[in-house]
Design brief:
Blueprint lengths: L2 H23 L8 H20 L7 H11 L4 H14 L1 H7 L3 H13 L5 H17 L16 H23 L3 H27 L4 H27 L2 H8 L2 H12 L7 H19 L2
Length: 287
C-alpha cells in the first residue's frame, strides 16, 4: 500500500473519531459555539508544529494565497455544517452522507487537473450517489427523525471537502508543505468564525469545561485529519486519496457501535452505507 493511501486512511479514521467526540461535546455546549474551540484549538496546534517543522526558505506566495483562500471556507464552513448535521442526524448517518465527497473531488480533478475517470470509477461514483439516496429514504439511526432537507447539511459539507482538494493539490505542487497549508488555512477559518460568533460567545458567558475539553479534542482530530489529507494529496492522485478518505463513515459506524450504543442503523441505512462504501472500493480499484 502506498504512503498516500496510508495517510488517506489515517485521515478517514481521524475524521470519524471527530464525529464521535462531537456527540459528547454537544451534551454541554451548544452547536453554534463549538467551532470556536475546534478550529481555534487546531490553529494553535498547527502553528506550533509548523514553526518547528516547516522550512520558511521555500515559501511560495502563490501557494500561500491559495491556502488562505481555501481557509476562508474550509474547515470553518465544514465544521459548522458537520456539527449541525451531527446534532440532527447522528454521527453514523451524517458521516455516511458525507461519503459523497469523492464525487465532487474526482470530478474537480477531471475538470481542472486533467486526471482521467475510467468506466469503473464512473460506476463507483454512481454507487456512492446511490448509497446517499438510500439514506434519504430515512434509513437512519434508531430514535431519530428528520426532514429530507436536513441531508443537505452533510451534502454541502461534502461539496466543500471535495471542491477544495484540487485547489490544495495545485498549491502543494508549488510549495509542498502540508503543515503550512493547514496552519494558514486554519488561521483564516479562525478569523471567519470569530467574526461570525465571537461577540455572541462573549455575551453568553463562560463555557462548560467538560464540553470545552471534548471540542478541543474534536479540533485536534480534525486538524490531524486535515494535515493527513493534505499530505496524502501531495503524494497521490485525487482519484486515489478522495475515495479512501471517504471511508470515514465506515469507521464512524464501528466507533458508534462501541461508544454510542443508541446510534444503531436500520436496514435501509445499512444498505446505503454498504452501497456507498462499495462504490468507494470501485473507485479505488479503477484508479
Amino acid at each position: 500500500m502506498s504512503d498516500a493511501a496510508i495517510l488517506a486512511l489515517a485521515a478517514a479514521f481521524c475524521f470519524a473519531l471527530a464525529l464521535i467526540l462531537t456527540q459528547f461535546g454537544l451534551r454541554t455546549v451548544p452547536s453554534w459555539r463549538s467551532p470556536l474551540y475546534t478550529i481555534g484549538g487546531s490553529t494553535a496546534a498547527a502553528w506550533l508544529l509548523a514553526l518547528v517543522f516547516v522550512d520558511p526558505s521555500g515559501f511560495e506566495w502563490r501557494a500561500a494565497a491559495i491556502f488562505a483562500v481555501v481557509g476562508c471556507i474550509f474547515p470553518v464552513a465544514v465544521s459548522i455544517l458537520a456539527v449541525r448535521s451531527n446534532e440532527a442526524l447522528g454521527p453514523a448517518v451524517s458521516g455516511a452522507v458525507g461519503n459523497v465527497t469523492p464525487v465532487f473531488a474526482v470530478l474537480g480533478a477531471v475538470l481542472f487537473l486533467g486526471e482521467r475517470l475510467g468506466l469503473v470509477q464512473a460506476m463507483g461514483l454512481a454507487m456512492v450517489v446511490g448509497g446517499v439516496a438510500l439514506l434519504a429514504l430515512r434509513g437512519g439511526a434508531g430514535g431519530r427523525h428528520w426532514s429530507v432537507w436536513v441531508l443537505g447539511l452533510p451534502l454541502a459539507a461534502a461539496l466543500i471537502r471535495g471542491a477544495i482538494q484540487p485547489a490544495i493539490k495545485t498549491a502543494l505542487a508549488l510549495w509542498h508543505e502540508p503543515l503550512a497549508a493547514a496552519a494558514i488555512g486554519y488561521t483564516m477559518s479562525t478569523a471567519v468564525i470569530l467574526i461570525l460568533v465571537g461577540r455572541r460567545a462573549l455575551r453568553s458567558g463562560p463555557v462548560d469545561r467538560r464540553g470545552l475539553g471534548w471540542f478541543l479534542a474534536v479540533g485536534m482530530c480534525n486538524g490531524t485529519a486535515t494535515f493527513l489529507l493534505y499530505a496524502a494529496l501531495g503524494l497521490g492522485s485525487i482519484a486515489l486519496v478522495a475515495p479512501l478518505v471517504a471511508l470515514f463513515p465506515l469507521f464512524a459506524v464501528v466507533l458508534s457501535f462501541f461508544f454510542l450504543r443508541g446510534e444503531q442503523l436500520h436496514a435501509i441505512g445499512l444498505l446505503g452505507i454498504v452501497v456507498s462504501v462499495a462504490g468507494v472500493i470501485l473507485l479505488l480499484v479503477g484508479n
